[in-house]
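Email to the structure team, subject: Transmembrane protein model.

Hi all, the expression group asked for a predicted structure before they design truncation constructs. Nothing fancy, just the tokens so they can compare against earlier work. One-line instruction: predict Transmembrane protein, return tokens.
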Amino acid sequence: MHAIRPAPPVALVPTTVVAWDMTSVFLSVALAANLVLTPLKAYLCESFPWQASDPPSILRTASSWAEKEVFLLSLTADRYNDSVFTGDANYFEDVLASTVVYRRLVTRPIAPITNCALDVATQVNGGLFLSLGTQAALCAFAAANDSHMLRSCFEARTMGTVDRYGCLWSTLRNASDDSTTVWLYSAFQLNASHGFLIGKLVFRMLLTLYMARRVWVEYYVHYKVLWTQCARLPNITICKIYMGDPTSIFLLHPVICLCLAIDMWLSVNVVANQVVAVLQVGSIYAFLLGDFYLSRCVWLCYACMACTSVVLKRFHWEHVFPPMDPTLVAVVATALVGPLTYLQGNSLCIQAYAWILNVAASSPHATEGVYAVLLYTCSIGALPLVHGAVQYILCRRRYGRGPTNYASHQYNDVKNQAMLVLQFLWLGPVPHTSGGSLYHVFDQFPGLKRSPCISQRGTDCFLLLLNTAKHPLELRRLSLLCHGLDRTRAAHRVVEAKGPVIFGRVKLTTSRTSYDGTRIVLLESSLFQSPWVE
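Reply from the structure team: attached below.
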């Protein structure tokens, strides 16, 4: 005998055909993979542990600096000469020895020399990083008009640890030339043990796996319940899901931001070498490679924005800083980090860096880079703050020009807006759009935003609802409540109510228990345990 049970509500019966827009799925996964692989992309410019040899043992002993300098010059000046440079080539990389070498033609004497750091060091590849002893040797060489040649080395330290060695030397352009026009060489050799390189690789692999796990748990897993919800939409024949971009979710994650910033400075010697590459334009290949590597500085910007978000929320200043487009931050940082670095190394800033690198040095033959790291971090990290201030001024000028359509796919971050416009070209006009209620609330109460600095609009997905004839009926925007709304700060303003709806929504209303017309946020929850809201 069969038991008789009541039929489920019509809204809970799956009647809608659900389909993925495969273009959006591909783009979403590609963007997520690009982000997840960020730690390992460093190896496009760095060597793997098995590609580099251990530093020579003499450099790890208590030998005198004079002995080490003679040995370093034998490794560089006696090895890297016309035999490894072809024609007028000015860049060479020895992967096995973890060494990069530059050269340029210099005509002596350089006169007048009123400021050695500015007049002479700017003409040397890597002149930004020279120790006091090497600076003195270089300036004496540049002022001489005799056969005197330059041979000098130094060690670069960060927090007392030697991370690389640098050497400068000169040779005649041709054996028959006089000594006024010479090749000036500069070589930089990384100093990192095999064990350290292996440890750094393991750290990056673990960080990559952690990021892959987080992108699944915090974003893609929510599409499972979304599929269930879409299948139960009433009076709809086909529901097509356009997947969003999870990139901005990572920018809210303090552990990931911190780890990626640490990962960058674990390779401080590589960063310094790439700064040298960006400070010259003789080798376009080296310049572009250095500019690409330094684009990782965008994580310094994101870390700075994460700290700024904490400050804004602490002092309730969320309204003075509009949420920034993470794509624009990345583009601005990537586009400016190279030119900004070039300007710092070829202007009066070189004097500031020369002083900072040597003020805490332990000897005239060494530099200490910890303060330079802090200065460079602040100068790059401040870029989004300047951008945010400009954006705030522009937003104030545009204020009141008309209502904002929060449901539109054009109300989005630049990258996502461009992708969605291309995907929706075939649609034509859609009779109705809905969703985006979360952003309407945020405009009224900025303090409810989980992150006041980073826009989360790119994570939104869109549903295209079609009838039997496959004609579009509605374009619906869905946002992830868990990543947008700060439930801790919002507790006293949010009233949650269970509603007979497929997708939850938020809206502003007036409290019935208040006599002063206090406005509250009414959160109407879905029939499903889902973080998606219209």
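The mean pLDDT is 81. The chain has two domains: 12-45+203-534, 53-191. Ping us if the truncation boundaries need rechecking.
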